[in-house]
Structure formats: structure tokens, C-alpha cells
Structure to design on (206 residues):
């Protein structure tokens, strides 16, 4: 489901306004969909992109996620928080695609369309030299490649906490596991990224 085209893109609402809009949408107020869409579209798109690393597939999964939200809106409990609920739906859409025996094979992103790496690179200041910019790009690429090699469970936990800024409790709710499981998965992901970047653990002094 897409928001009707308009001359300008509305500003994304804060989470409180988003929760209120979802309450109205769940109760059958279709006019509230525009607020829900504006508040979730970019967040879910980047989340899915970080999971699948293919812009076209992320867009398809995003539209699937909004369709699932529409079908499931009647089950949204009044007063609940929509962000963890929506992320769980998007994550399930990605998982279902990955598990499908008939899922089409998608190529890895090349340097020309790696939106994920571009969004994860630190912004270059006006005084940044070309070498610093190149190092930042190489680092982002190493991180993205390392993330792609992680088991899906570890990658999901890392993305939710590191990139999406979720609390451990919200990540556990989205993934349907315990908070301890999320912490363990994120820990293993961090360790893999440290190894990929050649960062050694601090050794205790003798």
C-alpha cells in the first residue's frame, strides 16, 4: 500500500502521534493510514534494506509489510506501541521471503547501488581529505560484508540495536525471543565485526 501522491512529503510524526494514528487506523479510520505510512516508511525501508541488501527487494518487502499491517490492523491492541509491532511484521516478511523455496536469487549490491553502506558511512566534513573519505567507505564496506556473512539471527539483533536504536526489550519483542537471547546474538555479531575490522579485545594487564 502506498500513500497517495501529493505535492509535498509530510514530515514523519513522532512516536506518540504515530501510536495514536495507528489506534485510529486499527479502528477502521482509513484516513489515519497516511500518518502511519509517513512515520514508518523510511524506517522500515532502511531496516529491510539492511537485512536483504538489495534496494528493489527491500521495496517489495516494504509494500508486503504494509499490506500485512493492513490485514492485521484489527489485531492491534489499543494503546500499544506501533513501532515494535510494525518492525516484527517487516521482519516476518523478510524471513518468509528468505525461507521460500521459490524465492528468486538476488545479486549482491555493487558499489553503484549500495544504499545501505552509504547510509552507514560517517558523514565527511568539509575538511575531510580524500584519504579519510576512502577509509570511511572501506570501513563501511567491511562492516556490510561482515554483516552479510552473519547468521540471520545475529544480523537481525545487531541491526535492531545498533542501526535502529531499539532497546533490548523491544528487539526481543520484535524477534520473539528472550532479552538474554538478543544480548547473546548481538554480542556474537559485535565480535564478528570486531574480527572483520581487525580490532583486538582489550587484554587484562599483568
Amino acid at each position: 500500500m502506498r500513500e497517495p501522491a501529493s505535492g509535498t512529503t509530510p514530515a514523519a510524526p513522532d512516536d506518540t502521534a504515530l501510536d495514536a494514528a495507528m489506534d485510529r487506523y486499527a479502528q477502521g479510520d482509513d484516513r489515519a493510514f497516511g500518518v502511519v505510512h509517513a512515520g514508518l516508511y523510511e524506517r522500515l525501508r532502511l531496516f529491510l534494506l539492511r537485512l536483504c541488501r538489495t534496494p528493489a527487494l527491500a521495496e517489495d518487502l516494504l509494500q508486503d509489510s504494509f499490506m500485512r499491517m493492513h490485514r492485521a490492523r484489527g489485531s492491534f491492541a489499543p494503546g500499544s506501541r506501533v513501532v515494535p509491532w510494525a518492525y516484527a511484521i517487516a521482519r516476518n516478511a523478510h524471513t518468509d521471503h528468505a525461507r521460500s523455496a521459490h524465492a528468486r536469487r538476488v545479486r549482491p549490491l555493487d558499489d553503484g547501488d549500495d544504499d545501505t553502506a552509504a547510509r552507514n558511512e560517517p558523514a565527511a566534513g568539509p575538511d575531510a581529505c580524500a584519504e579519510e573519505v576512502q577509509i570511511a567507505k572501506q570501513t563501511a564496506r567491511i562492516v556490510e560484508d561482515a554483516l552479510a556473512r552473519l547468521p540471520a539471527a545475529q544480523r537481525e539483533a545487531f541491526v535492531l540495536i545498533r542501526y535502529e536504536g531499539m532497546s533490548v526489550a523491544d528487539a526481543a519483542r520484535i524477534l520473539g525471543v528472550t532479552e538474554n537471547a538478543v544480548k547473546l546474538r548481538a554480542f556474537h555479531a559485535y565480535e564478528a565485526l570486531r574480527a572483520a575490522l581487525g580490532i583486538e579485545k582489550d587484554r587484562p594487564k599483568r
In short: Confidence is low (pLDDT under 50) at residues 2-9, 106-113.
